[in-house]
Write a structure and sequence with these properties.
With about 300 residues, the chain is of the alpha/beta class. It folds into 3 domains: about 5-95, Translation factors (Elongation Factor Tu (Ef-tu), domain 3); about 105-210, 3-Layer(aba) Sandwich (Rossmann fold), CATH 3.40.50; about 225-310, Roll (Ubiquitin-like (UB roll)). Helix content is about 20%, strand content about 30%. The protein has 8 helices and 18 strands. It has helices at about 75-85, 115-130, 150-155, 165, 170-175, 190-200, 245-250, 285-290, and strands at about 5-15, 20-25, 40-45, 50-55, 65-70, 90-95, 105-110, 135-140, 160-165, 185-190, 210, 225-230, 235-240, 270-275, 280, 295, 300-305, 305-310. Helix 3 links the parallel strand 8 and strand 9 (about 160-165). It is globular. It binds FE2/S2 (inorganic) cluster. It is an enzyme of class 1 (oxidoreductase). This is Phthalate 4,5-dioxygenase. Pfam families: Fer2 (PF00111), NAD_binding_1 (PF00175). Its cofactor is FAD. GO terms for molecular function: 2 iron, 2 sulfur cluster binding; metal ion binding; phthalate 4,5-dioxygenase activity.
């Protein structure tokens, strides 16, 4: 548990698109909620201990999210669609930003479906700054399924709309253009789109691509071995058996690290690595961050060798 858990009241529920509802929150006391930057998300705390991450996408700092009722999802979004109404008080954590807008000479955004939510906040931010070089390709199953479509189409020629039932899947090479130094590529959407963009960006300068996932990448735990974790601040050594996370093994010894999603997607449990090589299994870190080996998500990632030393 982190100490940024708070109660918020739902002040508005709107239908953004077919199967996409928008929720806006306020502090029940009327106090201002903390500010956030484009790319930030909050965790909604749902029954049975589930936490689900949603990008903040309100205008002018409003705490608004958009939730797709994903038929093949893990049940969190369906529960929200069925149960959360205006006036309800719910628990949230955050905001936290693991997808910040980096400084760049130009920006290429690629959004698929509900992946538009962090991207629209970035586009609004760049428009606010004026004279920024950006373009966006936004795909979805059909126009009816695409949230914020009218606002995005109103941005003019910088935007390319790709409803799948009209034009097919996003043409990723066309959306990216030629590799250029100084370009930041931001992508959020379904896993096949993220993988296609990742593949296409391998010939681009390192650090170009920024992606955000809200569903965990599958990790194959077969063949996992136990290893030791040393809590660097106290010197306590803990054995992490196969099938147990570093987070849980440390908690069993009274060393508690803040956690939320437990699935390697939210970044709450990010912990500094002092020694040892990490087997990264999260869905957040970039290739450069994995190679740097300076932090790990202890809810999911493990050791590549026999021992890790962590700054806890
Ligand atoms: Fe979310 Fe570990 S708790 S990444």
């Amino acid at each position: 548990m982190t100490d940024d858990t708070r109660e918020v009241v739902v002040t508005e529920r709107v239908q953004h698109a077919h199967d996409v509802v928008g929720l806006t929150f306020a502090d029940p006391s009327g106090a201002a909620l903390p500010g956030w930057q484009a790319g930030a998300h909050i965790d909604l705390l749902l029954p049975e201990g589930r936490a689900r991450q949603y990008s903040l996408c309100g205008s002018d700092g409003a705490w608004s999210i958009a939730v797709l009722n994903a038929p093949d999802g893990r049940g969190g979004s369906a529960w929200i669609h069925d149960n959360i109404r205006e006036g309800d008080v719910i628990q949230v954590r955050g905001p936290r930003n693991k997808f910040p807008l980096a400084a760049a000479q130009r920006y290429v955004f690629i959004a698929g479906g509900i992946g538009i939510t962090p991207i629209i906040a970035m586009v609004r931010e760049l428009e606010r700054r004026e004279n920024q070089n950006w373009r966006l390709t936004y795909g979805g199953r059909s126009r009816e399924s695409m949230a914020f479509l009218r606002e995005i189409e109103g941005r003019g020629e910088r935007v390319s709309i790709a409803p799948q039932d009209e034009t097919g899947l996003i043409d990723v090479p066309a959306a990216l253009g030629q590799p250029r130094i100084g370009t930041a590529v931001y992508c959020c959407g379904p896993e096949p789109l993220l993988r296609a963009v990742d593949r296409a960006c391998r010939s681009w300068p390192p650090g170009t691509l920024h992606v955000e996932r809200f569903t965990p990448v599958e990790a194959d735990g077969t063949g996992d071995e136990p290893f030791e974790v040393v809590a660097g601040r106290s010197g306590v050594t803990v054995t992490v058996p196969a099938g147990v996370s570093v987070l849980d093994a440390l908690a069993d010894q009274g060393i508690h690290i803040a956690t939320s999603c437990g699935e390697g997607v939210c970044g709450t449990c990010e912990t500094k690595v002092l020694a040892g090589e990490v087997d990264h299994r999260d869905s957040l870190l970039t290739e450069e961050e994995r190679t740097a080996n300076t932090v790990m998500m202890v809810c999911r990632s493990r050791a590549r060798g026999a021992r890790l030393v962590l700054d806890v």
